[in-house]
Amino acid sequence: MSTLIKTNAATTATRAQPVQAHTPAKRNNSIKLLDEAQAKTNLLGMTQAQLADYFKSIGEKPFRSTQVIKWIYQQGVTDFEQMTNLSKGLRDKLSANACVIPPKVIHRQYSEDGTRKWVFEVTGGSLVETVLIPADDSKINGRKTLCVSSQVGCALDCSFCSTGKQGFERDLTAAEILGQLWVANASYMTDAQDSLDDVDHSLWENNVTNVVMMGMGEPLLNYRPVVSSMELMLSDHAYGLSKRRVTLSTSGVVPKMYELAQELDVALAISLHAPNDELRNELVPINKKYPLDQLMAAARNYVFDVNPRHKKHVTIEYVMLDGVNDSDVHAKQLVALLGDLPSKINLIPFNPFPHAGYDKSSNNRIHSFSNILSEAGFVCTIRQTRGDDIDAACGQLVGQVADRTRRSAAWQQSIKDRENT
Ligand code: SF4
């Protein structure tokens, strides 16, 4: 679910850093050659159960999975030779047959406000992006939220979404999903060259405190790799994040919402954006397949019917589009739609991109809309827009770095055609 997050104030200087291909001398354990990943089994993103099966398959004890998971995620070690509580024989066996390789960083932007963005090249040459947003740059140990992508592009074609305009290429693997978190944490331990060669892994610290599956793609349409990745985010042997700090955002893939409710206890966000079916069919086309009554029933099931002590509320994401979905009438419709569903509503000022076809609602309009929701008893926040200087909404930076899909080309052509008529 693309979040339209923007990441730093226009006045904030950024350091855009295209990452050069590493020479043999610069090669390190954070970025390795793709051919190695293809020839060996990449252990990154494997759940504990999957890793235990792997160890059994190579004639080793399943408990080795716990040791290796701790090395990878709690100390950032990707070189089996450094996993010193494994026997020399096992280290040699792993070095010959397995690898731990995150996706390759080809572009990054670090802002002075602490925001970090990466464009990754994944197997096959596709690009995805990831954004890390600190809550408050004055607090070194404050909240740092990573917005993670689950697919290359997206097939759902929400009308206001930059990622949707790029079309769908493929699902990401668990290694490519979890690798975004691994790289974000590693970035705090590395120098400008991304080298981990001199890092003292005993001092390794994972700085990302929150993860939102809200980047490029619809996570529930790439269900198994997304769930595996979130399991590792929650696992005490891996990242150990609290279930309230791992959020999955969906545009409303209703059957998978029921499946998720049975399988994993994480926070849920719904990318709603419209309070009635007619408008939502236009803005979020998957609504034609799973209309609002079905979506709301699935949300209620998630909150009330499964493990109700833990699933206290749903976050409602609502992008504010000038003259489209931002009237007082829409706000009242939203109040009626949510009813007694425990909800926090996050109003998102639209982040314009070229030829989007929408404008951002005025601040006054957003506040009037917010007041109606607050007066009805909902907790309502207005997302701070940041990052006008780095095209920070999900999908925009990738669109800038490379534009590879046929659908995007068709979309660009349709824009030219419109401009010529
Ligand atoms: S097209 Fe819709 S579902 Fe897909 S990334 Fe954009 S907002 Fe999310």
UniProtKB/TrEMBL annotation:
Record-linked InterPro entries: Aldolase_TIM, Methyltransferase_A, RlmN_N, RNA_MTrfase_RlmN, rRNA_lsu_MTrfase_RlmN/Cfr, rSAM, rSAM_sf
Protein keywords: 4Fe-4S, Cytoplasm, Disulfide bond, Iron, Iron-sulfur, Metal-binding, Methyltransferase, rRNA processing, S-adenosyl-L-methionine, Transferase, tRNA processing
Enzyme Commission numbers on file: 2.1.1.192
Binding site residues for [4Fe-4S] cluster: 154, 158, 161
The organism's place on the tree of life at top rank: Bacteria
Family: Belongs to the radical SAM superfamily. RlmN family.
Miscellaneous notes: Reaction proceeds by a ping-pong mechanism involving intermediate methylation of a conserved cysteine residue.
Name of the molecule in the record: Dual-specificity RNA methyltransferase RlmN
